[in-house]
C-alpha cells in the first residue's frame, strides 16, 4: 500500500464550535476547538501489518479454545485473530525480538498472546486485565511496528503514537519501556506530565517524537498553547482508563480525542469494566474487540494472597506494630502502608521512626523532588524499608517487579 506524508492543510482538520469571543477560559481544554474532519481529504495511512504464522494457521478451533481456557482469555467481538503462543509467532521484526531475548522473556502473557495479533491487525480493542498482566508490551510493541510503517516526522509534526496515562509514575514507566524497545529503530519518545518544568518537555516535542506518553492535564496545556499537535496521531492508547475516569479526567480525555483523526487505531486498557469506561469505549472506538483476562470484577492479581484482619480502631496501631515485627523479621522484606489522610500519614511515620523503624512517607503535599527521593531510596534499599502512602491510588510504586 502506498503511504503518503501527512499534509497539514486546514481543509481536513478545520475547527468549529469554539467559544465566543471575549469569553474567559475557566476549564482545561476550553481553548481547544473541536475538529471537523473530512475523511476523504485525510492522508491515507497503513495500520494492518499482521500476517498469521503458519503454526497459528494449523491451530484447530479446539486448540484455540483450549489455549484460551487455560489462559482465562475471553474474547467479545467479531473477526478476532487467533492468539499466538510465542513471540516469534507474532512475527515481530528482528530488532524487537532481540530486545525480548535480552529481557529474558520466554513467552507472551495471556493479554499479550491475544493482544499482539489484534493490535497488529489495526483493530480497535479494549483489554481488561489485572494489574501486572503485561499490557504495556501488548500495546507498545505493535506501536513500534505501526510507527516504522509511517512516513518520517517532518518539522512541526506531533507524535504518531499517543499514550494517555493517569499518573506521572505510570507515564515514566511506559516511557522507559518505549525507550528500551524503540531505540534500535531510532524511535524517539518523551514523557509529558504535571509537577515538573515545562521547558524540557516542550523542547522534546518541538524536536519531534514518534511516541508521546502524557497525563491528560499537561497535554491539554501544551495543546492549548500550541506547543504540540495531534495531526499525525494514528495510534492512540488509553492506559488505565478506569483510573483516569476515577481521577476526573474524562472531560480532558474527550477534548484530546476530538483533536485526533477519527480513523485512528485506538486501544483502551482497564483493570475494571464499569459503565463509565464502557460508555467511553462506545463513544470513541469503532467495531472494537474486547479481550478479558480472568473475571471482569477482578482488578488485582489473584495470585497474591490477601489477608484481612478486622479490628477496632483503638487496636489498629498495636496490631500494625505486631504485624511489622513479623514482616520485617525476614531480611528481604519491604513494606508499603496505605493510610486515609495526609495527617495520619505524617503522624504514623513520626511514631514509627521514634520506635526505630526506617519509615518514610509520601503524599500529595510533598514536593515532586521529595517524592522522587523517597521512590529512589526505596528502589535502592536492599530490605527493611517502610513506605507510608496516603491517598486513593495516587502513586504506582515498584512496578518493576510486575509484568510490562
TrEMBL record:
Sequence ranges assigned to domain Helicase C-terminal in this UniProt record: 319-404
Span(s) of short sequence motif Q motif: 85-113
Residue ranges annotated for the DEAD-box RNA helicase Q domain, each copy included: 85-113
Highest taxon in the source lineage: Eukaryota
Family per similarity comment: Belongs to the DEAD box helicase family.
Organism per entry: Sander lucioperca
Catalytic reactions on record: ATP + H2O = ADP + phosphate + H(+)
Annotated EC: 3.6.4.13
Enzyme class: hydrolase
InterPro entries referenced in this protein's UniProt entry, alphabetically: DEAD/DEAH_box_helicase_dom (IPR011545), Helicase_ATP-bd (IPR014001), Helicase_C-like (IPR001650), P-loop_NTPase (IPR027417), RNA-helicase_DEAD-box_CS (IPR000629), RNA_helicase_DEAD_Q_motif (IPR014014)
Record domain Helicase ATP-binding: where: 116-291
Pfam family, one: Helicase_C
Keywords, alphabetical: ATP-binding, Helicase, Hydrolase, Nucleotide-binding, RNA-binding
Entry's Gene Ontology molecular function annotations: ATP binding; hydrolase activity; RNA binding; RNA helicase activity
SMART domains linked to this entry: DEXDc
Protein's UniProt name: RNA helicase
Amino acid at each position: 500500500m502506498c503511504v503518503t506524508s501527512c499534509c497539514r492543510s486546514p481543509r481536513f482538520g478545520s475547527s468549529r464550535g469554539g467559544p465566543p469571543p471575549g469569553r474567559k477560559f475557566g476549564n482545561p481544554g476550553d481553548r481547544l476547538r473541536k475538529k471537523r474532519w473530512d475523511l476523504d481529504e485525510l492522508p491515507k495511512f497503513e495500520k494492518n501489518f499482521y500476517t498469521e504464522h503458519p503454526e497459528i494457521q494449523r491451530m484447530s478451533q479446539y486448540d484455540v479454545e483450549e489455549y484460551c481456557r487455560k489462559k482465562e482469555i475471553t474474547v467479545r467481538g467479531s473477526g478476532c485473530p487467533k492468539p499466538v503462543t510465542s513471540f516469534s509467532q507474532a512475527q515481530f521484526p528482528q530488532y524487537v525480538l532481540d530486545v525480548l531475548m535480552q529481557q529474558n522473556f520466554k513467552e507472551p502473557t495471556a493479554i499479550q498472546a491475544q493482544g499482539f495479533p489484534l493490535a497488529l491487525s489495526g483493530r480497535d480493542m479494549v483489554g481488561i486485565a489485572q494489574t501486572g498482566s503485561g499490557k504495556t508490551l501488548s500495546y507498545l510493541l505493535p506501536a513500534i511496528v505501526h510507527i516504522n510503517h509511517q512516513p518520517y516526522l517532518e518539522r512541526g509534526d506531533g507524535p504518531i503514537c499517543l499514550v494517555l496515562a493517569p499518573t506521572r509514575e505510570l507515564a515514566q514507566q511506559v516511557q522507559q519501556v518505549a525507550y528500551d524497545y524503540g531505540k534500535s529503530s531510532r524511535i524517539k519518545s518523551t514523557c509529558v506530565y504535571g509537577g515538573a518544568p515545562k521547558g524540557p518537555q516542550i523542547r522534546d516535542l518541538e524536536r519531534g517524537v514518534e511516541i508521546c506518553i502524557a497525563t491528560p492535564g499537561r497535554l491539554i496545556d501544551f495543546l492549548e498553547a500550541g506547543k504540540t499537535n495531534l495531526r499525525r496521531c494514528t495510534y492512540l492508547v488509553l492506559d488505565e482508563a478506569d483510573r483516569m475516569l476515577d481521577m476526573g479526567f474524562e472531560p480532558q480525555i474527550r477534548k484530546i480525542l476530538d483533536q485526533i483523526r477519527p480513523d485512528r487505531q485506538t486501544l483502551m486498557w482497564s483493570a475494571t469494566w464499569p459503565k463509565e469506561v464502557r460508555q467511553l469505549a462506545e463513544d470513541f472506538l469503532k467495531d472494537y474487540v474486547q479481550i478479558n483476562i480472568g473475571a471482569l470484577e477482578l482488578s488485582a492479581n489473584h495470585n497474591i494472597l490477601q489477608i484481612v484482619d478486622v479490628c477496632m480502631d483503638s487496636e489498629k496501631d498495636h496490631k500494625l506494630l505486631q504485624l511489622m515485627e513479623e514482616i520485617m523479621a525476614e531480611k528481604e522484606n519491604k513494606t508499603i502502608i496505605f493510610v486515609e489522610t495526609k495527617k495520619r500519614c505524617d503522624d504514623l511515620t513520626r511514631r514509627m521512626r521514634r520506635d526505630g523503624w526506617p519509615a518514610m512517607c509520601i503524599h500529595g503535599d510533598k514536593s515532586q523532588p521529595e517524592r522522587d527521593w523517597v521512590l529512589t531510596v526505596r528502589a535502592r534499599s536492599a530490605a527493611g524499608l517502610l513506605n507510608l502512602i496516603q491517598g486513593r491510588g495516587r502513586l504506582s510504586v515498584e512496578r518493576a517487579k510486575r509484568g510490562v
